[in-house]
Design goal:
single chain, mainly alpha, 2 domains
């Protein structure tokens, strides 16, 4: 089996692949993910963009001068390896954890570090949660969709899901707000009174009292 990344042997430390069960799903996924392809696409986001110069009107002995435009750019290659940052994003969504939580848990979980491409266990956090937030913002929606697509492709290749299952999307709407009041709500009683009064008028029944005033007082 190919290890997550090549590294020199360390006499005083044990490799993570000697500490964990390589048959676990996360370890198998680490060896099947196209990390080089993903890193190559993500690296384009963090590459420095060339900026055109601005021609200066003043002339000297050497002709017209060109001065670089002073435009600030947030694009830069992160200090943390891309493999680790990409793995942290996947682990965050896979285990439904917060940015701070996934970074703290990464330092205590050898399997997560193996999935991130580390050869030896590191008893420290790779970065704080703010770095993960900025990394996700720089990737944007297209970058996040690319990571999700690669994960789905691996799942199909491993026959964990069938291609037919991807032809239909199921949306869970339980998180949406609904105009449903509690059964004991006084507004439901007022609504029922109004409906009864309206139904009586439509059928020609004369009511001695509609309790309209009492309904407002009881509602308060």
């Amino acid at each position: 089996m190919a290890f997550a990344c090549p590294a020199t042997d360390d006499f005083f430390r044990s490799r993570i692949d000697h500490m964990i069960d390589l048959r676990l799903p996360l370890a198998v996924l680490a060896s099947r993910m196209p990390w080089q392809e993903i890193e190559a696409r993500v690296a384009q986001v963090f590459s420095h963009k060339g900026r055109a110069g601005v021609a200066m009107p003043d002339l000297d002995l050497f002709g017209e001068q060109v001065q670089r435009a002073a435009v600030s750019s947030n694009a830069a290659r992160p200090r943390v390896p891309l493999r680790i940052m990409i793995a942290l994003l996947y682990l965050k969504h896979a285990f439904n954890d917060s940015d701070e939580g996934v970074v703290a848990r990464w330092a205590d979980t050898p399997r997560w570090q193996f999935f991130s491409g580390c050869a030896y266990y590191e008893d420290r956090q790779p970065r704080d949660g703010t770095t993960l937030v900025k990394f996700r913002q720089l990737l944007g929606e297209e970058g996040m969709e690319e990571l999700l697509a690669q994960t789905i492709n691996v799942a199909v290749e491993l026959k964990l899901i069938k291609p037919q299952e991807l032809s239909r999307v199921i949306v869970d709407s339980t998180v949406q707000h609904k105009a449903i009041a509690h059964p004991t709500d006084s507004r439901l009683l007022e609504t029922a009174r109004l409906n009864l009064v309206q139904a009586a008028k439509e059928t020609g029944i004369d009511l001695k009292q509609t309790f309209a005033k009492e309904g407002r007082d009881l509602s308060r």
